[in-house]
Amino acid sequence: MLSTLEYNLFHYIILWAANEISEETLSFYRSCLPSSEIVNNLNTTYLQKWNFNIPFNIQEIHSRYKPTMITKTSSLLDYVNLDRIHPLVISNIIEPLSGLISPNKLSDIRKKYALLAGKYIYISREVPSLQWSTCGYNMCLYRSPFIVTSNSLSQGWIRTAVPVSGQGLIEWDIVVEKMCCQFWVGICTIKGFNVDYNSWLGNHAYGWVFGSNGVICHNSSNSTNKYGQKFKEKDIITVHLDMEERTCSFSVNRISYPVAFRDLPDEIYPAVSLCAPGKAKIEPHVKYQNY
Question: Which of 148, 238, 252, 289 is deepest in the core (most CB within 10 A)?
Fold first, then answer.
């Protein structure tokens, strides 16, 4: 799972240690480390591009400060979960700064990345995987793992690759790229269920959904429980999942509504249920001031 917060911790430790040595040392390591914004773009962009120029003589200059940097950072870097730092940062930045991380640990990380190739997950403030995964046979990805569309007038649904678990508030956005007659945004679980992806998610005990008709539904074919407002094409529906309280609520274009579902299980996946020509994009929820 990729996390900008994990990189931020690494970034802080390195610059703190460099500053303890000299201004010259700080200036050098600052030039070696990309900003949080660059790393965040790597974590959240499907097309992985490295747009950061590191010093051509990084290893030569690093060797001057290496013994002191290792002494100052070795115990602190144990707190950094390197598995959650983007592989391009590992290969382009951390590996050239040899000695800060043991070769054995770097080797283990490379092996894990090889096993997870193509399945990197972005996590920011405990946001779950934002890549669509398992779905009904009438659902298909559209140009990226973040956009799904339907090619059938029958309902089908899709969930993300990795579930939400743990504690705290988790939020993500679903953008209505193209509306259909029944567009449903929600969550699901699969633990203990034999799920049917070629159906309407709200009809099952493992699905909790909010529809474009302004109703919510769980484990019922009768979708008359009014909630919030109707939504339309290009609207943004935010899902607010409180894993501590085990509740879920929704916002439409940043207008918040009360709790829609309670007593949720401990493992939840983001999900949408659509029919043709519906198209849904999942993306991180970005909070603005006073929201």
Answer: 148
